[in-house]
Amino acid sequence: MSKFKKAGGKGLKAINTASLPDIVFMLLFFFMVTTVMRETNLKVGVIVPEATEVKKLEKKSLVSFIYIGKPHRNLQKTFGSEPRIQLNDAFATPEDIRDFISSEREQMDENDQKQMTISLKIDQDTRMGIVTEVKQELRKASALKINYSSRKKVDEALLK
Amino acid sequence: MARREIQEINAGSMADIAFLLLIFFLVATTMDIDTGISRLLPPMPEEEELDDDQEIRERNVFVVLINKDDDLFVEDGFYDVSELKEMTKEFFLNPDDDPDLSEKRELTTDFFGTMMVSKGVISLRNDIGTSYGKYIEVQNELAAAVNELRNELCMQRFGRRYDDLDPLNDQEAALIDDAKKVFPMAISEAEPKKVGGN
């Protein structure tokens, strides 16, 4: 018979891969569950500034977002390149913020309304004029808990 | 051959399908946790005239100005952002009772007993043209100064860093509250005015 047949007869058995799909499915379900699909389409470009004293935002359901930044390039023809405010899915003016806050409040549980936090996602190159306007509107709407969204800065001393 | 045995479905490609889906979700997942600097805005005054009702002595106010070119003016001159933290800490601590730095008053808390705490307030003012990045950088330095003071206080008394205290633990939460009373995050923001030439 064949010269190459091994002396022992059977040699290495192939590893049983029958449980491989199970393992992969397990991972798949993990990622499916943890994935949060983004709810709003960002129409403005936002690169938030870096900071060291950041804290995590707890309880996503209590947080509403206000985005401020330059409109994306394909929208700049219609909306210009000046930084704009985005609430939910649409561009807005500072005057719209009060309505936005009250509609966000209504969606919340009554006990949670006091804990409502506004996360300000503002591009780092934005001028403070528009930011201050937004802050004044938030004060008028008495939404006082705010959070300046920022990235955690990596401590350079640790890298060395 | 009338009766053929039913063949098992070949499940060999199941792994491939699952992998495909897995890779899709791996790529689509962003596990970013939202982080940021939390602040509490002051409530709107009932009437506009009641704005400056509190008299605060000048030595107790730590003036921080940022102009439209993102230059930083602190108390008496222009400084770099990197110097701001140390200056803020010195202003609050005032170890040598410098008459230019903040005054102190007695405060009794459960954890720290009676001690002298600063009456100082940081007054932060920015121009309309200040960039948001610079503003956050300054806010961050001020927050870092206060956090460091709290850290040092807790380390000195209890051998624990303030940052490591667990707010879910009742006793530690009380300690956090007391540390906040000793070193409050006293940042007051004025209405924006034009600072510096325009």
Overview of this protein structure:
The complex is a heterodimer of chains A (160) and B (198). Chain A has 160 residues and is α/β, with parallel strands linked by helices. Chain A has a domain at 44-152: Nucleotidyltransferase, domain 5. Helices cover 29% and strands 22% of the residues of chain A. Chain A is built from five helices and nine strands. In chain A, strands 1, 4, 5, 6, 7 and 8 form a six-stranded mixed sheet that branches. In chain A, strands 2-9 form a two-stranded parallel sheet. In chain A, strand 5 and strand 6 form a beta hairpin. The mean pLDDT of chain B is 80. In chain B, strands 4-3-2-7-8 form a five-stranded mixed sheet, with helices on one face. Helix content of chain B is 34%, strand content 20%. Chain B has a domain at 56-189. The longest helix of chain B has 27 residues, at 132-158. Chain B is elongated and about 105 Å long. Chain B has 198 residues and is an alpha/beta fold. The chains are: A alpha/beta (160), B alpha/beta (198).
Radius of gyration of chain A (CA) equals 26 Å
Please report which band the strand proportion of chain B falls in: under 5%, 5-15%, 15-25%, 25-35%, 35-45% or over 45%. Answer: 15-25%
Class by SSE composition of chain B: alpha/beta
Number of helices of chain A: 5
- CATH fold group of the domain at 44-152 in chain A: Nucleotidyltransferase, domain 5
Mean pLDDT across every amino acid position of chain B: 80
Q: Number of DSSP helices of chain B?
A: 4
Query: Residue-averaged pLDDT of chain A, rounded?
Result: 81
Alpha-carbon Rg of chain B, integer: 27 Å
Anisotropy-based shape of chain B: elongated
CATH architecture of the domain at 44-152 in chain A: 2-Layer Sandwich
Number of strands of chain A: 9
- The helix/strand order of chain B is HEEEEHEEEHHE
Order of helices and strands of chain A: HEEEEHEEHEHEEH
CATH level 1 name of the domain at 44-152 in chain A: Alpha Beta
Helix percentage of chain A: 25-40%
First and last CA, distance of chain A: 66 Å
Oligomeric organization of the protein chains = heterodimer
Estimate the strand proportion of chain A.
Answer: 15-25%
**Uncertain spans of chain B, ≥5 residues at pLDDT below 50?**
none
Which structural class best describes the helix and strand composition of chain A?
A: alpha/beta
